[in-house]
Design a protein that fits this description.
Helix content is about 15%, strand content about 35%. With about 210 residues, the chain is mainly beta. It has one domain: Alpha-ketoglutarate-dependent dioxygenase AlkB-like (Jelly Rolls, Sandwich). It is globular. The protein binds N-(carboxycarbonyl)-S-(naphthalen-2-ylmethyl)-L-cysteine (MD3) and fe (iii) ion.
């Protein structure tokens, strides 16, 4: 993929009230992030969750940290073990924890201490339909996201499902902090366009750091 910004320094842009995008913030650490993901997935492989509505999710998921996000026919919840194999989630690597803490701090959210990191893997065509993240106890805590590999179109809606959506391309190394009034905005990812990325091949990965409890 042609990267017109390959030699540029990272930069930041305010996105909305409470939301800041740090463009290319971890681009130079991409290989280290991907190696950490590989190690987590070696212990707790990616798998496709079932939604409460009975659909198989196109995004494959695993987690690290004390808690992991999960879904089955009964609903969404955070769990301390992987329902696929009964194992605890691997600990959150220091590289992950430190990045999440620093990015939150730079966006004005002090002392962010995530206890969950959901790792999403998108293959060509995988998507995430419009949803809110509201299963965390303290919604004053932000979510920090890290995008790796192939780019994807992110939809950023409003506080109701019907509100109009902004579109934003999330690219390799982009970090976004979602807090304040943006924390409950609907959002989603359009189907991944098939392509190849030098570090991730046909995939896009997204990490979301959350303080659940
Ligand atoms: C805005 N992940 O895992 S990251 C999710 O790219 C999720 O895999 C997407 O939405 C992905 O729940 C989007 C950006 C993101 C994450 C959490 C948010 C945006 C958010 C929470 C509130 C508002
Ligand atoms: Fe989300």
């Amino acid at each position: 993929m042609l990267d017109l910004f390959a030699g540029e320094a990272p930069w930041q842009e305010p996105l909305a009230e409470g939301a800041v995008v740090f463009r290319r913030r971890v681009r130079d650490r991409g290989a280290a992030f991907l190696q950490a993901i590989d190690e987590i997935a070696a212990a707790n492989p990616f798998w496709h969750r079932i939604t409460p509505g009975g659909h198989v999710m196109s995004v494959a998921m695993t987690n690290c940290g004390e808690l992991g996000w999960g879904s089955d026919s009964h609903g969404y919840r955070y769990e301390s073990a992987d329902a696929a194999n009964g194992r605890r989630w691997p600990p959150m690597p220091a590289l992950f924890r430190q990045l999440a803490r620093e990015a939150a701090d730079d966006a004005g959210f002090a002392d962010f201490t995530p206890d969950a990191c959901l790792i999403n893997r998108y293959a060509p065509g995988a998507k995430l339909t419009l949803h809110q993240d509201k299963d965390e106890r303290d919604l004053r805590q932000p979510i920090v996201s890290v995008s790796l590999g192939l780019p994807a179109v992110f939809l950023f809606g409003g506080l109701t499902r019907e509100a109009a959506c902004q579109r934003l391309l999330l690219e390799h190394g982009d970090v976004v902090v979602w807090g304040g009034p943006s924390r409950l905005r609907y959002h989603g990812i359009l189907p991944l366009k098939p392509d190849r990325h030098p570090l991730t091949g046909e995939y896009r990965f997204n990490l979301t750091f959350r303080k659940v409890r």
